[in-house]
Design a protein that fits this description.
globular; mainly alpha
Amino acid sequence: MIYVFPGDLWLTQALQGIGDWLAPVMKFFTWLGYPQAYMIIIAIIYWSFDRKLGLRLAVFLTVTASLNSLLKQVFHAPRPYWLYPDIKGILASNGFGMPSGHAQASTVWLYAASCLKNKVFWALGISIAFMVGVSRVYLGVHFPSQVLLGWMIGILVLVLFSVYEARVLTWFLNRKFSTQLRWVTGVSLLLLLLGVVFQTITKDWEMPMEWIRNSADDLAGTGESILASLGLSALAGNSGGFLGVSLGALLCHRKGGFDPGGRAWKRMLRTLIGLVVLAAIYGIFVWTSPDQAKELLHSVWQFSGFFLISFSAIYLLPLVFKKLRLSA
């Protein structure tokens, strides 16, 4: 299998050759592509600015992230620092490299711009998505081709959402609640099933020892191993997030929705309370994390944790805001 495409190596080396002074900037843009950052940004939009937009972004993100996790299991492609010891794996982590999850998820900014239909937001979205992708190459965790494929798949998902979102939503909302529950649960479980199928098909594939040796120094001190890339933990977390968002949205809709408007102090207080609660849940989630070597247990933990976080953000916290009379 071809892992390196023309221009991949020299572009990665050229970016890293610019110097360490650029690292803080690139780390910032990479941080914008982590689930924690999206969780904060989308939650604030949902609670205090535009509920429908926040919900649409959450669904888009969990769908494209789940697709990315599936594709990584299909390609089994290495990250640059797994192949070349002279490439520094800055902010190194496990997980296969093709396609770039950061680049694919960054298209959520383009989706937001398409929803808002504003030239300023389009310019902002394109700029952020571009810089997130470039940061992954500079940090040595993705080849340019992996970033490019991530962008392409993300844009394809964006186009599909733009074309089919309205008619799918209309069809879905006209179904009985029990049918809606079956659909969202079925989609979540289907994602996991596809992951199991791909893992079964490639069960004889073995991680090259060269990759393990080359990545050891960059991963030293993180407590991680690239062997964990073979598991379904990432997919389990994304599918759990999708179920939490979808189920939360259904229940919130049955309760009459949630108005994110109101006075500025109410918006700020909702945001503060919500972020503190989510931070506490996430902290417990990380603290109770089982060993990644226990694949099944770790996958169940990922699914449950991301389900609880997203369900709390979309449904439980708005209920709390109503009880505290903080909704508009």
